[in-house]
């Protein structure tokens, strides 16, 4: 049984919100009473997600947004504030995988693309969220890193570099903004059953078996489990928690 939260009268902003962890978190915020602004680069899936949540009676809007473009991020945050009047919570979730690569063969194009989305995208979202939260004197931000922000794995240097960077970004901003009433944390999900992971592992039965062997809990995580960690970090129950990189990984990093 999941804990319950009361976010009535509050506004949440979620990037990468049309599927996977982002959609599960947007849905959980809405079910807890928040108005939610969804942002995603995929217009078709974003429209479907917004229509579904609206049909369920939730107050949601959707904005097409490529987080690697700061102007688009600023516009998405501005629209959320203009529509709902404030911004209380944010989950900066949008991210991509980089193709596995020998570190000596990694292309600059791959490195730049994964950094643009996974690190600069979170930097841009956090920056513009903080401008509104600073004016309010309150707010909570959760940035999505990864177990790849805590460990290293072969052929994943570019991806892991971006996710390690998210943790540094989070900790520095958390220390800076704690005195201003704003809490900033990161989560580090393990292998979660999302479309991105499904695509990555499709046809790789041996890879999936290897991953499960590394999971003390013996299974993949769910998007809903990640959503619950985000809601807790945004809730009064985590009022003394800031600057953490919280593993939500089924015990992977406890080995």
UniProtKB/TrEMBL annotation:
Lipid metabolism among keywords: no
What are the entry keywords?
Answer: Oxidoreductase
Q: Which Pfam families match?
A: adh_short_C2
What residues form the membrane-spanning segments? Answer: none
Q: Which domain of life is it from?
A: Bacteria
Q: Which GO terms describe its molecular function?
A: glucose 1-dehydrogenase [NAD(P)+] activity
Transferase among the record's keywords? Answer: no
State its Enzyme Commission number(s): 1.1.1.47
Q: Please tell me which top-level EC class this enzyme sits in.
A: oxidoreductase
The record ties this protein, via PANTHER family, to: DEHYDROGENASES, SHORT CHAIN, ESTRADIOL 17-BETA-DEHYDROGENASE 8-RELATED
Entry's NCBIfam families?
PRK07231.1 (NF005559)
Concerning its family, UniProt says: Belongs to the short-chain dehydrogenases/reductases (SDR) family.
- Protein name (Swiss-Prot/TrEMBL): Glucose 1-dehydrogenase
Species assigned in the record: Sinomonas terricola
Upper classification of the source organism reads:
Bacteria, Bacillati, Actinomycetota, Actinomycetes, Micrococcales
